[in-house]
TrEMBL record:
Protein name: (d)CMP kinase
Family annotation (Gene3D superfamilies): P-loop containing nucleotide triphosphate hydrolases
Example of a GO MF term: dCMP kinase activity
EC numbers for this chain: 2.7.4.25
InterPro entries: Cytidylate_kin, Cytidylate_kinase_dom, P-loop_NTPase
Positions in coiled-coil regions: none
Organism the protein comes from: freshwater metagenome
Length: 207
């Protein structure tokens, strides 16, 4: 599927994915992709356009036609949505929109295209990276943490909102959140960032 080496990092909200994936990419000098930001960007644009998250065809059209950039900031169709995508309205709608198989197909295609264009390797974080997007990833990591710790880390989002997203993400029909059989599962509840990165680097060195 791709010849660019990929480290896939999946897990629920607040498990440490974004921070760890970003720092790992810096350490390896590899490119980094936050796929959650892509689903959030589609959600932000759909909400701006007054489209209901349940309107699957209209949302699919937004996703299919969107130009999304995640570096240096998050934009969709040249609109900077970096701040907007963290708003409660987006937290509330994103999991419904991400459960739409047409939206997923459009995002997965972009993620694969992006990856093969990277010069060295990529660290990609999300919910379905090891299971669906890059099943041949060099290394698959699934990060977890207790619900209490995850909501403590995500001070900007209520525990109820995180729990609701987790439920929708884990129980959807298409590409649900789950650890791939080949993933290294790391519980980050009582671990600091540096030690988790060390653990991942050790696993990579063994590949
Ligand atoms: O940062 P946090 O873990 O809270 O969420 P995110 O990575 O920004 O993802 C936001 C939402 O996008 C998730 O709750 C999922 O509904 C969806 N998502 C997905 O379905 N597949 C991905 N690969 C990444 C995110």
């Amino acid at each position: 599927m791709t010849t660019t080496p990929v480290v896939a990092i999946d897990g629920p909200a607040g498990s440490g994915k974004s921070t760890i994936a970003k720092l790992l990419a810096e350490r390896l000098n590899w490119s980094f992709l936050d796929t959650g930001a892509m689903y959030r960007a589609v959600t932000a644009l759909a909400l701006r356009q007054g489209i209901e998250p349940q309107d699957t065809l209209a949302i699919a059209a937004v996703a299919a036609n969107a130009r999304i950039e995640t570096i240096p900031f998050i934009s969709i169709n040249d609109l900077d949505v970096t701040i907007e995508i963290r708003q409660p309205a987006v937290n509330h709608a994103v999991s419904i929109i991400a459960a739409n198989p047409m939206v997923r197909a459009a995002m997965v295609e972009r993620q694969r295209e992006w990856s093969v264009r990277q010069p060295v390797g990529t660290v990609v974080e999300g919910r379905d990276i090891g299971t669906v997007v890059f099943p041949d990833a060099l290394l698959k990591v699934f990060l977890t943490a207790s619900v209490e710790e995850r909501s403590r880390r995500r001070g900007d989002e209520t525990a109820a909102s995180i729990q609701r997203r987790d439920d929708i993400d884990s129980n959807r029909d298409h590409s649900p959140l789950r650890a791939d059989a080949g993933a290294v599962v790391i519980d980050t509840t009582d671990k600091d960032i540096a030690s988790v990165i060390e653990e991942i680097v050790q696993c990579l060195n063994l590949r």
